[in-house]
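Structure in, sequence out. Go:
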């Protein structure tokens, strides 16, 4: 009942209770003293108290009305597109305190809105990139299937077309897997769990994915890393990043080349160098190679979609590290992965 009581009713009930108490007190005093002067003094005193109460109620009501009007104006301004925080001179006033928190709330809401808009733009860009990338394999699959259905051909030729179809399907599958990983990392669905553990095991896992292709091209792989060296990192995703860099090294290193991996301790970072004897990366392209789906014109004949280095940088950056690339004519390229000590 008390919670449902309005301010006006509460004031009215308070006045009635005060009137009853005043009348009761005056009556008791008259019965005890039988002096009319006491009654008049009591009445005058009660009247002064009533006047004071009425003034106080009017004053408080006016302050509350101004306060509510200011809050409403502030909220209306926050809901409009052009919001400017009001200047409050009385820094210790109740409105100042609430205004300060409302402005802070507005700033947080704006930050969240900007983040959501950015995520939406990234999602739109990702969808656009995917649609662009799947066009070629889908068109190739349609052409192969159409040829197989409409034209008679010898068994050997048919197997060639089926092999080409499998290759395009593998490319689509790889593309979809890469897109799933990218979207999960960008939207924060997957969080990296860093803990101190041997980097040698992570490197071994990454190397396991490229050794077969390296053997096919007769590429020598050398590793200089202590088995006991521990680095704070997420094993699964750091292994993914290192595999992507190593996979690129194998792709762009000619037959009979070599790949060297070394891990060193710096003052604030651990440095993992992956050096190949492959094609030089022009200095003008060294910042672009980490962009999603970026590929140089000169390497379009080599299989790939240009997502590996993008994922690698994303994973390392999320762990507080960074990747640096250096490349010289006749010396191949070196990708340096820096991971912080903590």
């Amino acid at each position: 009942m008390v919670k449902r009581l309005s301010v006006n009713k509460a004031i009215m009930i308070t006045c009635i209770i005060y009137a009853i108490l005043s009348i009761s007190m005056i009556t008791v005093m008259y019965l005890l003293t039988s002096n009319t002067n006491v009654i008049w003094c009591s009445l005058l005193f009660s009247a002064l108290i009533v006047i004071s109460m009425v003034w106080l109620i009017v004053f408080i009501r006016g302050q509350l009305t101004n306060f509510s009007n200011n809050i409403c104006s502030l909220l209306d301004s926050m809901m409009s597109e052009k919001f400017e925080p009001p200047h409050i001179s009385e820094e210790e006033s109740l409105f100042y305190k609430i205004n300060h928190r409302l402005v802070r709330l507005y700033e947080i809401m704006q930050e969240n809105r900007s983040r959501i808009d950015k995520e939406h733009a990234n999602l739109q860009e990702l969808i656009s990139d995917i649609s662009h990338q799947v066009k070629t394999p889908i068109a190739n699959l349609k052409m192969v299937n159409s040829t197989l259905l409409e034209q008679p051909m010898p068994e050997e030729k048919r197997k060639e077309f089926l092999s080409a179809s499998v290759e395009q399907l593998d490319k689509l599958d790889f593309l979809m897997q890469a897109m799933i990983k990218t979207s999960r990392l960008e939207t924060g669905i997957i969080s990296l769990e860093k803990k101190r553990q041997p980097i040698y095991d992570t490197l071994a896992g990454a190397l396991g994915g490229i050794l077969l292709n390296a053997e096919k091209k007769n590429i020598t792989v050398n590793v200089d890393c202590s088995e006991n060296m521990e680095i704070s990192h997420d094993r699964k995703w750091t292994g993914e990043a290192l595999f992507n860099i190593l996979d690129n090294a194998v792709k762009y290193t000619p037959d009979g080349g070599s790949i060297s991996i070394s891990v060193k301790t710096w003052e604030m970072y651990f440095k993992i160098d992956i050096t190949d004897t492959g094609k030089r990366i022009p200095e003008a392209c060294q910042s672009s190679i980490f962009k999603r789906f970026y590929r140089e014109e000169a390497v379009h004949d080599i299989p790939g979609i240009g997502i590996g280095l993008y994922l690698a940088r994303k994973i390392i950056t999320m762990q507080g590290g960074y990747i640096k690339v250096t490349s010289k004519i006749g010396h191949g390229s070196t990708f340096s992965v820096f991971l912080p000590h903590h």
